[in-house]
Amino acid sequence: MTNRLGTKTADRKAKTPEDLTITVRNQRFGRGIEQRRWWLSGDPVATAWHNALSATFPRGEAFFIEAVKAHRDGAPPKLEAEIRAFVKQEINHTREHIAFNRMAEDAGYDMARIDKRVEELLALTKDRPAILNLAATMALEHYTAMMAHEFLTNPQHFEGADAEAANMWRWHAIEEIEHKGVAYDTWLHATKDWSRWKRWKVKSLMMLIVTARFLKHRVEDTLNLLAQDGLSGPKVKARLFAYLLWKPGVLRRIFPAWVSYFLPGFHPWRHDDRALIAKSESDFPDAVLPAAA
Questions:
Q1: Domain span at residue 36?
Q2: Rounded distance, CA 138 to CA 246, Å?
Q3: Could you report the per-residue pLDDT of 20-42, keeping only the tens digit for each?
Q4: Structure letter (DSSP) for residue 161
Q5: Number of folded domains in the chain?
Q6: Would 14 be classed as within a structural domain?
Q7: 41 inside domain
Q8: Between 17 and 1, residue with greater pLDDT
Q9: Which residues of 217-237 are buried (b: 16+ CB within 10 A; e: fewer)?
């Protein structure tokens, strides 16, 4: 649709920007240092939430890689290059979260329970249609993109954090924003013969399933880590929910972006937030390895 000036209006179909470059920032964080047990401003709740998130990434990102690669055949050259870049970024994220999780273990936390449950859940996906694994990946990538945007927009999330830990999370957030459209574009490619109704129905139902499991398990994992600090009971749960929903309130703040996933014409790049990348990546001067070539 065009307006009376002959230019396209905002309801045109959104897509990944043509001039997007996905860059591999091959960074390493926290090597050879001892991280505080409560590395995020001395707050056990904030620390436990991010440790619980990190514990899921090594196996989760390997799952994302395989789900996207399974549908790359026949992809247009631009998408094929972006998939290669996505894979390289996710491999580096896996490496850094393994190192981060090891530091949490060195600080005294047992992370094995979380890792084992993730392994068991992912084992259940082996026999289901590959397209459903891609739908789950697409939904989870939207979660990582939403949180990445919030982490870079609101410095309060890592205020008072150990420097190396905070830099790792910001680096990860930059790349999650940068490749936020890859799984979705792969989905559009893989389902190009589907009706719009079927595509919307499957992606929406999967997001609801993913959301229920994501919230349930992340809260359980966080409470498990807090229990290892001797912190449990209703007051601790209230502190966790206040952290997630009030201050800094990551779940409250990402809710509008979560709702947008269900709207007609949704695409991750309908909201172009690359300015956050340019603003934040000055912390990483060695980010010079283009991956989409």
A1: 31-273
A2: 27
A3: 999 999 999 999 999 999 999 99
A4: B
A5: 1
A6: no
A7: yes
A8: 17
A9: bbbebbbbbbebbebeeeebe
- 126 class by beta-carbon count within 10 Å (0-12 exposed, 13-18 middle, 19+ buried): exposed
Backbone Cα Rg of the chain: 19
In sequence order, the 6+-apart residues with CB closer than 8 A to the CB of 209 are 136
Residues 6+ apart with CB under 8 A from 221: 52, 55, 56, 114, 117
Q: 201 pairs with which residues across the strands?
A: none
Q: What is the mean pLDDT of residues 190-196?
A: 97
Cβ-proximal residues to 95 (8 Å cutoff; 6+ apart), any chain: 28
- Summarised one tens digit per residue, pLDDT across range 140-163 is 999 999 999 999 999 999 999 999
Could you tell me the two tokens for 47? 């620390």
pTM of the model: 0.91
- For the chain, the maximum distance between any two Cα atoms, rounded to a whole number of angstroms, is 65
DSSP codes, 181-213? THHHHHHHHHTTTS-HHHHHHHHHHHHHHHHHH
Distance CA 144, CA 90 (A): 12
- Evaluated on CA atoms 137, 143, 145, 147, the torsion sign reads negative
Cβ within 8 Å of residue 45, ≥6 positions away: 222, 226, 236, 239, 240, 243
Task: Kindly report the CATH number assigned to the domain that includes residue 216.
Answer: 1.10.620
Residue pair 268/184 in contact by the 8 Å Cβ criterion: yes
Which tens digit of pLDDT belongs to each residue from 34-76?
999 999 999 999 999 999 999 999 999 999 999 999 999 999 9
Distance CA 227, CA 236 (A): 9
Q: Is the pLDDT assigned to residue 79 strictly greater than 70?
A: yes
